[in-house]
């Protein structure tokens, strides 16, 4: 518990500011938007962001003090409604945006603006640098044409972060530029994609002669790959790097279902205990990584965390369905819904199906193993024949 710890001066400052926030904006009588706005103004949105942009310029590990105090006081945890905005778009805008673009951070944090991330295309997923969406300059504007796919929450988003091909004569990583897109602008069309859970949490997005002012270009022309790296590294920490209380989340669901349906089978009990230990190892590893994390773009710990979380979640839900036996095969509702946020539900069967996506979204497990092999273990890399070739000369299907 934060309250019983001896705090250093910086921790004490964060704790005091959070106490002030809670007493000046009591959660029970303050609207969520007002509370989150005040939290942003106090520098407690993302404490590692600079002052004036929702932070205090201190270590990201101090965010835990804010989260625990607000949770204890019954205040809002805004990120659940805007996971792509909080986890990926905000760090990208902060790192690569102009001062005018950084003005968008406050309404992002209050969830007045939901954000989405438009990177993947039908022909560019793991190898997203091979993307084909066209960005052509026209005076003070850019004209974008092409298709994005698997765009989570695009249907409720006000803004989207998009990467597009601005120079097909350059090699694939170099000819990409990033933009912030107003999702209500003419030429932006969002179409639902239904998943096996019945829901359409993600979408196809078509840009047809969509005009984007140059003032909404993120970073320099041709620096889109750097924006992508910032976004993807933060995405992996955001998806896999959570440090929930011990024994909570999917592993709690497994233990509950084992207690209710396990029939004391010692082999199954051994499997439950093994997965519980793995969940705890992941949790402790994530705590250690968050303690070591510096201000700036996260490093390979995000790839580890995301890989471990994805594979563990699938194993947990596989075992849950095994324990449930024939009942595990029932799926109560296949109703078509367009969710307003992308979170695990309380429906075990839905969670089993949704867990399949964990090892695809934010980088597949195979690709993360490649990254760990190359960047952490120093193993020989994939053979990349197209790295130095102009993008337009690389064969595409
Ligand atoms: C639930 C969900 C939400 C998503 N949300 C978003 C979003 O909001 N925005 C967005 O831009 N994208 C989003 N995505 C897309 C996601 O980033 C891609 O699906 C992912 O990067 C994989 O790309 P792909 O589907 O094209 O598969 P491919 O890249 O075609 O991969 C197919 C298979 O080949 C394997 N493979 C590919 N390359 C290699 C390699 N070099 N070595 C070994 N194996 C390899 C893969 O592991 C996989 O098994 C989402 C996906 C899901 C499932």
Q: Gist?
A:
The protein is α+β, with helices and mostly antiparallel strands and 397 residues long. 40% of the residues lie in helices and 13% in strands.
What does this entry look like structurally?
It is built from twelve helices and eight strands. The model has no long low-confidence stretch (mean pLDDT 92). It starts with 8 loop residues before the first helix and ends in a 21-residue tail after the last helix. The longest helix is centred in the C-terminal third of the chain and has 27 residues, at 266-292. It is an alpha+beta fold and 397 residues long. Helices cover 40% and strands 13% of the residues. The chain has helices at residues 9-24, 32-41, 63-72, 83-96, 99-102, 105-109, 224-240, 250-261, 266-292, 301-324, 348-355, 365-376, and strands spanning 115-118, 134-138, 141-148, 159-165, 176-182, 188-193, 202-213, 217-218. 39% of the residues are buried. The chain has a four-stranded mixed sheet. Strands 2-3-7-6 form a four-stranded antiparallel sheet, with no helix packed on it. It folds into three domains: 2-109, Orthogonal Bundle (Butyryl-Coa Dehydrogenase, subunit A, domain 1); 115-224, Butyryl-CoA Dehydrogenase, subunit A, domain 2 (Beta Barrel), CATH 2.40.110; 228-376, Butyryl-CoA Dehydrogenase, subunit A, domain 3, CATH 1.20.140. The protein binds flavin-adenine dinucleotide (FAD). Flavin-adenine dinucleotide binds at residues 84, 116-120, 125-126, 150-152, 202, 357, 360-361, 363-364, 366-367, 370, 382.
